[in-house]
Amino acid sequence: VTHLADYLDMFSKNLESRGVKVHWAKDAQEFNEIVLGILKDHNVKKMVKSKSMLTEECEMNPYLEQHGIDVVETDLGERIIQLLGQKPSHIVMPAIHLKREEVGKMFEEKGISKEIGNYDPTYLTRCARHHLRDQFMEAGAGMTGCNFGVAATGDCVVCTNEGNADMTTSMPKLHIVAMGIEKLVPDYKSLAVFQRLLCRCGTGQPTTAFTSHFRQARPGAEMHVVLVDNGRSDILADKDHWQTLKCMRCGACMNTCPVYRRSGGYSYTYFIPGPIGVNLGMLKNPQKYSDNVSACTLCLSCDNVCPSKVGPGSQIYVWRQSLEKLGKADPVKKAMSNGMKYLFDRPALYTTALKFAPLVNLVPECCTHFSNWNAWGIGHAMPEFAKKSFHQLWKEGKVK
Predict the structure, then answer these.
(1) CA–CA dist 390, 398 (Å, integer)
(2) The whole model's pTM is what?
(3) 160 and 41 in a common domain
(4) What is the mean pLDDT, run by run of 10 residues, along the chain of 400 residues?
(5) How far, in Å, CA of 360 to CA of 385, rounded?
(6) Residues 178, 225: one domain?
(7) Which of 14, 106, 143, 170 has the most CB atoms around its CB within 10 Å?
(8) What is the separation, in whole angstroms, between the first and last Cα of the chain?
């Protein structure tokens, strides 16, 4: 990303030299308008699309549907949550929060599954396959995301395990690529490294089942590439958080995050959950998404597993330091932090406080478990303070 301007120029020129039409969108609104304009020019009423977090970011599907365009997700997980009217709970496995019974019942209601009560995953997958084949045949356009753009050659690289991106581009004669400007790599040598990293960190595979390179439209067809900024230039100029643009969206930070693993994707207010979502939400609108910053234990496990060395946990720590400046610091937490600092800075006072701490054990349970005062206490037993501190026991020779 440090040479982004040069790579973007090289990438767009390579595409245009092969007859691909390149569009530039400064924000989500312009992106949606460009896509709608292309579809209207070709009288498209139904569009199939492979997985793309960029279209989620720009809320493209609702926009197109409001203008009479039927958008069909072809990634199985995305199609499932689209039919359920839900949002993705994970950026790689969007329907991971659902049980097969829930999927099977929904397929029965939608007429996709014909065998009532058959919730076998293989059977349900075959039902989805037959269902999507009809959508591919009827669609007037296909849209793919873009995992990587190769600047030196103008390749749009899409990684899938279902082959849906290939079907999306093989059947319709109009292919639209939605791509964030940060997705560029210099050449094939760099692509080989990042593609393997994406697969291993995303799903644990050596490589995805399909790695498709789209360079130009087939004879008689048309290809458009829409390059989207939508705040990415501002992120690049942010000296504290520009590393976020290096994110490959592999989801490794979510898989290791103790908060995400216990609470799931819907506990976050930004559409991308997990550590990277906390950072992206703050970069998008810190006033709106500041509550997500507290959804972090600062264990920094995400820093250790991140293949791009984005350092999402370290960046969350930086965001926490700015909450006061943003006017979003919790006054109760702030008062408690100041009180603890005052106490820990004075050893004599701290020692005295330890002696009186066991008095808290005498507080009635109804007070500690009252929902308006302590919501956490409703489902947890309050730990008791020890009658003697470790330091006292050590002095008395009771610790060996």
Answers:
(1) 9
(2) 0.88
(3) yes
(4) 94 98 98 98 98 96 98 98 96 95 97 95 96 96 98 98 96 97 97 97 94 96 98 95 96 96 92 96 95 92 96 96 89 90 94 88 76 70 83 85
(5) 7
(6) yes
(7) 143
(8) 56
